[in-house]
Amino acid sequence: MQYLRQILTLCCLALLSTPVLAQKLVYSEPDRNEARQINFEIIGQYGSNYLVFKNYRSNNYISVYDQQMKLVKNTEMPYMPEKTIEATFVAYPNHSYLFYQFQKKGVISVMAVKLDAEGKNLTEPITLDTTITGNSSDDKIYSIIPSEDKSHIMVFRINTKNERRFQFKTLVYDKELSLLHSTQQLGLDMGDRNDFLTDFNVDNHGNLIFGRGVRVGNNDNITKFFLLLKPLKKDAFETRELKLENYSLDEVKLKIDNHNNRYLFTGFYYPGRKTTIEGVANAIFDKAADNWVVQNTVPFDDQMREDNRGQNSSKNAFNDFYIHDITIRSDGAFLMNAESNYTTSRGNFNPYNRWSMMNPWMSPMDYYRWGGYGWGSPWGWGSPWGYGNNDITRYHAENIIILAFDKNGKMLLTNQVIKSQFDDNSSKHD
Description:
With 430 residues, this protein is mainly beta. 6% of the residues lie in helices and 47% in strands. A hairpin with a 4-residue loop joins strand 11 and strand 12 (179-189).
């Protein structure tokens, strides 16, 4: 469903800007030599070819397709170890960088390789950083985030062994993969285990931006929220509080507006500390003005609630919706899409609620595990396995709503797709 949501958002963006041209859809034929469980990532287009990275168990290779999506060849990657934890690509017009992690004898290393337009390595793998864990695990601890213009690439990890004070390590590179700045140990006081961090972004100046929310007790609602910014050349965080008046927040999404040097935070909101989603709250921080220049709430009307109620009452119509993708135009206007996601159980135990469905606390080996850059929600739904052989968790993906706002957070239009999907023991609806 991730790709469907993104396509629908881009279509709405086109309707707001330019006339829509007819598109031709071309797809590749299934490869009978590939397993159904194969992992893949689209690297990008180079000339008349498309490159797709594929992984199955210890086998890693790049498939090269022509413009008609016919397989031209597969480029093997023998330099990658058999047990690679994760591979991430940052693509440029004539080349790309591959970043991957692996563990050997209790040490996790993050590596980088420069690839040409056919997926062949132009350089030997270089080690960017290592971390001694002392444990054997297949979980990643490093995240790689490029800026929107890819002039800066950040490699970072967060040590959460002390849950009250997280320790950041950041490495920032330019597009030639030359190190611009490193911060070895930067502490962030979390205060309470109910504090959480939003998705992380790097702006076109190399600054790290994210948000910190505070939840009181076992309440899911965010009652305090802070913008955190780590400037490229500084080893300290700058903090700006967003005052919440008469409402609390759900999960908060971050998107950088590099055209206007602004940071957008958006999420569903609740009236006071109630548990019924009322609408969307938007806040925009202007870096030049060093201030919040937009803060508003946009309630959903009765018709939207009735159209998207599903199995809920109209009052609770949006309690199962989660914001996934945000797109910002050059003039500061933006679109977002949200999808109804929930679980049901046909066994004796269903461990999921709204908080656990988007819970960011994934800390293998005392390290904060974040999903990477730009692919929808970083939280994930986790694995349903391990709760007993008689328990089957069904994942539902239903209606999609698309919301368009102007640069001041005012609602311009809404659209929706009515659908119903589910899968047993898997949250992957792609």
